[in-house]
Amino acid sequence: MARLTPRPLRVVIAEDAAIMRDGLAQILIRRGLDVVAVVADAAALRCAVDELLPDVAIIDVRMPPTHTDEGLRAAQSIHRDHPQVGVLVFSQYIETRSAAELLSGAPAGVGYLLKDRVADVSDFIDAVISVARGGTVLDPEVVRHLFAASHRANALATLTPREHEVLALIAQGRSNAAIASMLAISAGVVEKHVASVLAKLGLAPSDNDNRRVIAAIKYLES
Question: Which residues are in the HTH luxR-type domain (predicted)?
Fold first, then answer.
């Protein structure tokens, strides 16, 4: 009895840069994978996946129309609606919040790799196959960013309600005097709250960094 040959993995590529899109397709085809669709935006990606149900979709983060996180949002919806389809985010950018949301449910069949850190085509193909088969593949830099974001969230959770108010006003660019006036407290009390906020966020005194600006960024990122 003749042995059946396993069918090649079926892949959809979503990438708005034409050269990158065509290059990925050629690499995958040469390695024996079946590229069933190549699209340039998130809407076309969702349509292709709904219709073709590939084994894996390789998705850029920033695509038309806004070039922000359309790819990651599409990856989330695909992972939710078609859990049997692997989603491999392949991008120059780390969108921490959306990545955390993508991985927060069932991380099986999910990957996130950075384009400029993939040095070997074989490693990339292995990652595609792993995600298609239900594995999880994350670039160490992505893991580092997710861990740092989690640490910031935990630090912010330790702030008192008054400290949150003070930090929110710092993020608006308010001076200590302005904060004291708005909250009807003394400037000395504001200084104590600011010092406590900076300490809880792990922002030690530095000659090079504006700690108030960094604290504001952490607040806005949260």
Answer: 152-222
Name 22's Cβ contacts closer than 8 Å, sequence gap at least 6: 38
132 within 8 A of 55, measured Cβ to Cβ: yes
Query: pTM (2 decimals)?
Result: 0.69
pLDDT in tens, 152-174: 667 777 888 898 888 888 877 78
Sketch out the chain's domains with CATH numbers: 10-139 (3.40.50.2300), 158-221 (1.10.10.10)
Distance in angstroms (rounded) separating the CA atoms of residues 184 and 2: 85
Cis ω before 161 (30° cut-off from 0): no
> Distance between CA 170 and CA 148 in Å, rounded?
21
Residue 165: is it exposed, middle or buried by C-beta count within 10 angstroms (0-12/13-18/19+)?
middle
What 8-state DSSP symbol labels residue 14?
E
Residue closest to 15 by CA, chosen among 49, 57, 60: 60
